[in-house]
Prior knowledge:
single chain, 294 residues, mainly beta, ten-stranded antiparallel β-sheet, four-stranded mixed β-sheet, 3 helices, 16 strands
Amino acid sequence: APNLGDLFQSNxxxxxxxxxxxxxxxxxxxxxxxxxxxxxxERADTRAFGxxxxxxxxxxxxxxxxxxxxxxxxxxITPDAQVLINRCAVGEAALCAxxxxxxxxxxxxxxxxxxxxxxxxRTSGFDVEIGYRRSLDLSDRIADxxxxxxxxATHVRERVVDAVGARFDYAGSLADATAVPDRRAYVxxxxxxxxxxxxxxxxxxxxxxxxxxxSAADIEDNGVSSVTYVDLGATFRPRLTEPLELxxxxxxxFDRAPPRAPVTTGTSFLNTGTNMLLYDTVGRxxxxxxxxxx
Length: 294
């Protein structure tokens, strides 16, 4: 359903750089962004099924696989001013109502941008999870040790967005805020006891492309390499009767640099050369401290 901003946002006026396909010229115009009371609720059809196995021959082991498939119709989107101009130029008369041209030179004097029910979204894929827990007897001095292993992997087959006549499949595209890795995995291995915990975590993001709609005519190298991060952590409780913990951790142990995945839209001068929403831009980092409860 539309939120308050979608419905009641007041007019916000700004200057926009546009390319006018009618006059074949680029210039600046006025963009007015506002809410819309004409929005309808979004509709979604979701199909999901899964299988869970817990074999009696291997106590503590759990395996699961889930398939998901979701379609969203009439999804709400606020199209860019240039998108409205381009779609109007190819004959979508309903969008032309948002564009005002000056009577003298036919230049666009104002573009009114507001949310519309014009987007169709579809996503599907698989989730796989493996869990294992086992009690250990490593030392007579430490009781109740246990080994915990958990691995989760996701494969996104498609993440298609059809908005105002433009169709994109974001699965495997790794640039910009719309990035959707088509392969991700997370593995956790932990040793737990009443006095001491230790853990190792692996995070994997698969390879992909900057943007799936680009070809060799658009960019020389559209590929983005995969990356794997390893994190380590430990917690020590000196006395079981006191709510005191000492902890330490090392993130990105092997100091893996992020792959080349620059932002291709938006504010270019803030571009760090990689997608900060996906990748570690700090490098190896250490933390340690003391926790106490009162």
